[in-house]
Design brief:
This protein is α+β, with helices and mostly antiparallel strands and 156 residues long. It has one domain (4-155): 3-Layer(aba) Sandwich (Aminopeptidase). It is built from three helices and seven strands. The protein has a seven-stranded mixed beta sheet with strand order 1-2-3-4-5-7-6, sandwiched between helices. A hairpin with a 2-residue loop joins strand 2 (48-55) and strand 3 (58-66).
C-alpha cells in the first residue's frame, strides 16, 4: 500500500465522516469527561495542524499536532490519531506519527505529548507511542489525573 500524507482539506466531506467515526469510537471507550478527542471544528483552528494519510482516494488515517494555550512554547500535543479499522496493522499510524514528529522537529518544537486511553482498546496505540520513544508522564496542560487516561511525552 502506498500512502500519501498531506495537510487536511476541510472541504472534503469524507474527512468529517472519518473524524466522526473517531469520536464514535471514543464514546464507547470512556465516560464523556475522559474523552479528549477534537471534533472537526476544533481541528480547524490556526494552532492545529491536521494531516491525512491517503491510500489512493481513501482516507487511511489522520494525525494532528496542537499548540495550546495551556502548553509552554515549543511543546505541542499529538491529537486525532486514527487509522481506518480496515487498514490497522498496515503501518498507517507509524507513517503518520513519523510525519508529525518530523514536522515538529522542522519547526523546532522541543516536546510532543499526548493523552490516550488506559483501556485495552488503546493498547496498540500505547505500544506504537512507546516504540517511537514516548515515555509515561504526569498530566500536562489542562489535563488532570484520570484512571481512564495515560499521558506520554517525547523530548525531540
Amino acid at each position: 500500500m502506498t500512502l500519501r500524507i498531506e495537510r487536511a482539506d476541510f472541504s472534503d466531506l469524507r474527512l468529517g465522516s472519518f473524524l466522526q467515526a473517531h469520536l464514535d469510537d471514543m464514546a464507547r471507550t470512556a465516560p464523556a469527561e475522559s474523552r479528549h478527542a477534537l471534533d472537526l471544528d476544533a481541528l480547524q483552528v490556526p494552532q492545529v495542524r491536521l494531516w491525512v494519510a491517503m491510500a489512493g482516494d481513501a482516507i487511511a488515517g489522520t494525525a494532528a499536532l496542537a499548540a495550546g494555550t495551556t502548553l509552554d512554547p515549543g511543546h505541542e500535543e499529538l491529537k486525532s490519531m486514527r487509522t481506518d479499522p480496515a487498514r490497522r496493522g498496515q503501518g498507517v499510524a507509524s507513517a503518520l506519527l513519523q510525519h508529525t514528529l518530523a514536522d515538529a522537529r522542522l519547526r523546532q518544537v522541543r516536546r510532543v505529548s499526548l493523552e490516550t486511553g488506559s483501556m485495552d482498546f488503546f493498547g496498540p496505540a500505547r505500544a506504537l507511542y512507546a516504540k517511537a520513544g514516548f515515555k509515561p508522564c504526569p498530566p500536562f496542560g489542562s489535563y488532570v489525573e484520570d484512571p481512564n487516561s495515560v499521558y506520554m511525552t517525547l523530548e525531540l
